[in-house]
Every structure is written in C-alpha cells, then in structure tokens.
User: Fold these one by one.
Assistant:
Number 1:
Amino acid sequence: MRASSKPTIPPPFDVSEYARAVAGSEGAASLRRPAARAHSAPSSHVRIVGRPIEDSFLTNESWARTVEGVPRVMLTPDEIKQLPLDHRAGFLLSLMDGSVDFDSVVELSGLDRGDALEIARELYESGALIFR
C-alpha cells in the first residue's frame, strides 16, 4: 500500500503509549491525553476554504478598483431567497445581470457609494456574485 502525500492531523494521544496499552494488559481505556496537548488544538497543514482569502486590509474603494469585469449573480433564485439579505442588497443584486459594468450598477442603485461597495464586497466574498 502506498503512503498518502496528504498532510494529516496528529492524534490527540501518544501513539507509543497506545501501542503499549493495547499490547499490555492495561487496555486502551487507560490512555490519557498528554499535558502538552491538553491546552492546544492539534495543528494541521490542511486549510479548508471555499475561496481564497481576500485582502481584508483593503478599503471598499480599493477593493472596487481591483475587481475586473461585469458583476454576475451566481446563485439560483431559490438560493438567493435563503440568504439573509436586506432590501438594499436585494435591489443591488437585481441590477447585476451580467450586462452592466460595476461602476454603473453602483450609480444606478442610488445608494451611497460606500454602502453600495460594502454590500457588493460582502456578496462577492460570500460567493453570491462573481466578476466576469
């Protein structure tokens, strides 16, 4: 059997102690978590993410200058209904049909530019819309 190249999380117990307990008469019930690990979670090299971490230090204006393309909604109407959107976010989403550029959408919305950019950024980072 070939060993996997995927990183794994180390077990929360001492493996050699486990081997002695199973082989000896103590049984596995006597295992205790080592004191060093009792206060910290096991580390892992695996990172589970749905999309790359955005540069959170960017202001909304700076973020808006980095997006390229036309905003397009990626969710079905049923999925959109499940989102906790307020009326402003819903209206902004309704303008993003893939035919109008982002700056025009912000202007057409009639919302304060800062508010519109904040809402659009939250929608983008949640995966509700993309720019193509």
Number 2:
Amino acid sequence: MRWGTGSSQIRPRPAMPFFSQDFQEVVKSGCTACKIQDLDATIPEEDAGQLNQLVVSALQRNPSIRYVVSADGAFIEGLQSSLAAAGLSKVRVLANWGTVATEADLKTGPFVALTGQNIEYEGALLIDVALRHSEGMPITTPNDGGLPFQILTKTTLVAPAVSYNYPSDSLQQLEKLWKVG
C-alpha cells in the first residue's frame, strides 16, 4: 500500500493502539520516504469538539502534509468544512469506522476512504462468544474471520448508513449455528 511517496501524513493518536501500530507498519513497509506526524490530542479536547481545529492548525504549520488518517471517523466529523474554510482543498482524508456524517462527506469532499462495519453482526458475535463460553466450547481467535469491514470510497458507498449489513445473511448463519433459525 503506497500513501504518497515523499509526502507527510497526520493522524490523531488513537485510543486503539493496534490501529496506530498497524498503520505505522503499513506505511513504513510501503513507502520508506513517507513520514508520519502524530497529532497529540486529549480526550477533553476531543469531547469539546476541538480536534478538527487542531488538525487544521497542524496542516497549516506543515503544508507538506497531504493525508489525514483517523482511527475513528467520529473523531473528525465536520473536518470537511473546517478544511474548506482554511483553504486546504488538497488534503485527503481517510478514517476507520466511518459515521453517517463522514460517509456523506465521502461523497462530496476530501474524504477518499472509510471503513464500514456490520454492527448488528458485531453484536451477534458477542452473543456467540457468550454462548460458546456457557457451553464450554473453545472461543476462537479474532484471526479466524472475525468482524468484516468494508472499504468505502466514493464509488463503493451506496448511501450513508449506521451499519452495513454484509454479509447480508450473517445473522441467519449464526442462527443456523445456534440451531435456533
């Protein structure tokens, strides 16, 4: 995966360390000339809605930054209008866990990719783990298929939604496994 040879990226430091570590590994393996600049933001700053202002300020201080990558789309809702107001039209934005608002921005603005997930299936997987535990069955590792994510782009996004129901028969598959459907 190539993030833009010689360009810089900025991303909020996520609460999810696996995202940060994986992101850094992918960038380093695909683009040795790329640099990553972390944006240190506190939870109170995020809660106060100051993250977009911090991102814009960091971009203005370092105009070589071409991409903003966020661990969670909810952190950067409204970033599109903040970038436009600051005249930062060349910056591209990617986020994990798109929200309805960031998915709408994907269709019209600097967002180039988001991930979508099937939260109904995620809830069913939690029930599955509880059922397996209560039956004394092994609980498999998250690398056996786990929760599917979709890469959403301007062309693959059908319509902004809270949850992407893919696979569309995921709940029926679990009901069959549980022998209740």
Number 3:
Amino acid sequence: MTAEPAPATGWEPDAPVDDTIVRQALLNFAAMNEHIVAVTGGRVRRHTHVSMTDAGSRCAFLNAATLLQPLLPGDDTALDAIDEFYGNTSEGAVTVWSPWPTPDLRALGWQLEGHPPLMMRPPGGAAPDPPADLRVDEVAGAGALDGFAQVLVDGFPIPELQPFRAGSFFDERVLGAGLRLWVGEAADRPVATAAAYVAGGVLGVNFVATLPHERRRGYGEAVTWRATMAEPDLPAVLLASDPGRPIYARMGYLPVTRFSLWVRPSKRE
C-alpha cells in the first residue's frame, strides 16, 4: 500500500506566493533584504528553508536570515545553513526573523530580541493631509539618501552605526528595482523616513523612523502614509513595534501575527 503524501503546509518552496498574507509579507521582506544587499556588493543566498544576507555591515538588520519554513523539532536544516553561511565572517551581529514561534535558541548563542507584530492594511482609502510644516519628498539621489539614512540611524536608532557616517547604511545603488524611499523635512531638516518595496503581490512598508526630538507631531505618520499609498491597489504590510502599533491601527492596519526576532552577536567581538 502506497503511503499518501503529507498534506501541504503552504510553506513548501513551490507553494503559491499568495497562499496567505503572511507568506506574501515574508517573501516581500526576504526579497527586499536580498535586493539591498546584492546591489551593494554583499553576500546573498536563498536556501529552501531560509533567505540569508550579509552586507558586511555592523548593522544587524542588514545581516538577516529570514526563515522560509518553520523550525521543526529534530530538523536543523535552516540552522545548519545559517551557521555555514555566516560562520565567523560576518562583520556585525546577525538577525533571524521567523513568522512562527521558534525553539529556544539561547543555547546556540542567540538572544531573543522580541516578537514584533506583523500588520496588514487592505487596499484603498486615501491619506490625510500631512502637517503644514512638513514636506515629504521621494529620495532620488545620494544627498537625500544620506539624510534618509541619518534619520534612520539616529531615530530608530541603530547604535552600532552612531555617530552617523555617510554611506554607512546603504548608498544610491539600492534605489529602484521595487524599492522607494521617502524623507520628511521640517524647517529644511530631515526628520522622518519610510520606505516601500513591492514584491510577492504586496507592498512592504519598512524603515519607518522619526528623530526623537521631532516625535508626536505627526511627521512619522505622514511619511508612512506616503509609503503606504505608493501602490494603493495593493495590500500594505509592515512589521511594527508595540509602541508604534496604535499609530498603524489608526491608519487602518490590522494585526495578523507576531514574528520572532533573534540576534546573534558578532563572533568577531
């Protein structure tokens, strides 16, 4: 008697991209990381179980392993691939992103950073007017990109890249191929950022940041609206923080699930 094949989980490599909104968001996030790192000369590898990028950066967010299948007990395929890819060569810390709960990885040298909520906004609607003192422009060149990156480094913040140095996050090679960036300026100074990346049939909103002393003025929300409405006929997805979640809810974003985020310090430290 021939055994019947196991039921599909929806996470097989050949599963439809649009099987679930979680799958679409996951593949969008992985594709964006791969784009940024590949065009700036870093290392990229897509495994059946995990997408891996190594920008050679001190910034852990650019050295990202995004799980494409759940970590199952007794199956170390993804973890072995991560160890082999990063080894002792990564300049900075490495992150692991999973849309599923994971086993406890602390014994393997990983630190649990948190469980950021994945949120989704259905297509349609219209953005409110931005604050009168804010100008929102799309980033189109190196000068504006440095302003974008400095707000991100100081506003998110990214301590390992402080004090900010031009070109330390990424450069103008990332522009295009589905990635668009916006910066909000008040009094002719960059104060807030957001980005949009189209892949997997959704628009992924990323790199949302506001300088600490410019918060609670509507600047970050206005720039996030610009990114969200870049492709108004597509669902928008983003990974939020818990403090930022009420703002996204006000914009019409709905909670979907929580990711697991692990960080491994650089082995060079």
